[in-house]
Specification:
Helix 3 (89-104) links the parallel strand 3 and strand 4 (110-115). The relative contact order is 0.18. The protein is 35% helix and 22% strand. The chain has helices at 5-16, 34-49, 89-104, 126-131, 137-141, 151-155, 184-188, 226-241, 281-302, 321-334, 349-353, 380-396; strands at 53-56, 62-65, 70-76, 110-115, 171-179, 192-198, 200-209, 213-214, 250-252, 256-259, 265-266, 269-278, 305-308, 312-314, 317-318, 339-344, 359-364. Helix 3 (89-104) crosses helix 12 (380-396) and helix 8 packs antiparallel against helix 9 (281-302). The protein has twelve helices and 17 strands. The model has no long low-confidence stretch (mean pLDDT 97). By secondary structure, it is of the alpha+beta class. The protein is globular, with a radius of gyration of 22 Å. The structure holds (2S)-amino(hydroxy)ethanoic acid (HGY) and manganese (II) ion (2 copies).
Length: 398
Amino acid sequence: MKVDAERFLADLHKLREFGAAGVGKGVVRPAYSKADIAARDWLAGRMREAGLTPQFDPVGNLFGLAEGASLLLGSHSDSQPEGGWLDGALGVIAALEVARAAQEADGPPISVVSFEDEEGRFGVTTGSAVWAGSTPLEVADGLTDRDGVSFAAARAAIGDRSGDFIDPARFTGYVEMHIEQGPVLDGSGEKAGVVTDIVGIRDMRITFSGQQNHAGTTPMHLRRDAFQALAAFNAAINARFRNVVTPATVWTIGHVGLHPNASSIVPGRATFSMQWRDGDSDRLNRMERIIRDTAEEIAQAQGMGLSFGPMLGLEPVAMDATLRAALEAGAEAVAPGNWRKMPSGALHDATNVARLMPVAMLFTPSIGGISHAFEEDTDEADLVAGLRVLAEAVGRLR
Ligand code: HGY
Ligand code: MN
Ligand code: MN
């Protein structure tokens, strides 16, 4: 099977035009935004031109279906609020190119997918989580984004494009190509990473409610300042995690909303995201206990109200041995001795799809290890090398 590198790169650059923003090759294409829907319409057209049948499901996951039983390749095409041009997009466009190449070479039937809201405007990998049944649609519909918009209201943007959910029994397995989004391959100079397993994640919104008041007249000892509660919480968990975590464990407070967020008002409310990731579910659970206990202690000590939003999470998963072996053989064929096996610290739709079928993942290097930022990039020669590894692997799976 012979992939067309120019056609692949041209499509990848075309997809970047939907929501192109910021410096360099940045994109702003969050789930269900105008740019996201326009990109999906364009992708559906490219799928049709490739001889696939495009079909949207009720949450906006877009499949390009081959006839009969097929291998599913893909990723997502929504972005972070500030994202790069490759996160998700690479896996979708590589899938499209391999599907085309497979047809031209009379190769195995390949279907393509672009999952929706992988980047978690509403949850964690929401579109694939609903498709895989790990998040029931009624539960997803009740999730809200940071501006209070519900998933149900946002997915109405799919409109009459929406068909039924696709029967996963059509697919024999799922392979997702993705940029690494970390520093390992860039640091070592290797061309590819074959993923061994994907870490688990927990994510929840926490709110401290104090008393909004005048910043000039309210004495310090009478304040119930929600920001001070958040600051104390952050310092306390950093200290308390020390005995529980490993160097691979990560945690992030990435979004903070202060109410009313004005310099002359003691903040009455602090709502923030608390996210943590590790390869061990027990450790994730121990960290949850610390988070809840610490928040309760601080709320009590500082006279705060406290509420926890829904707990979202995904368990760590191992990749399928057969699919992995095909990627390893592909990597060895394309970049002999210059690739590695590695875990994924980023989350991917593959985690959800693993509930339905065997899955595997392939990484290409990220320049400077930067992602979830406009600066995200990869050398085009490395993108093409990754595409070739994927095609080699698919050829071995027929
Ligand atoms: O956050 C993640 O790991 C993924 O990129 N959504
Ligand atoms: Mn991604
Ligand atoms: Mn991402």
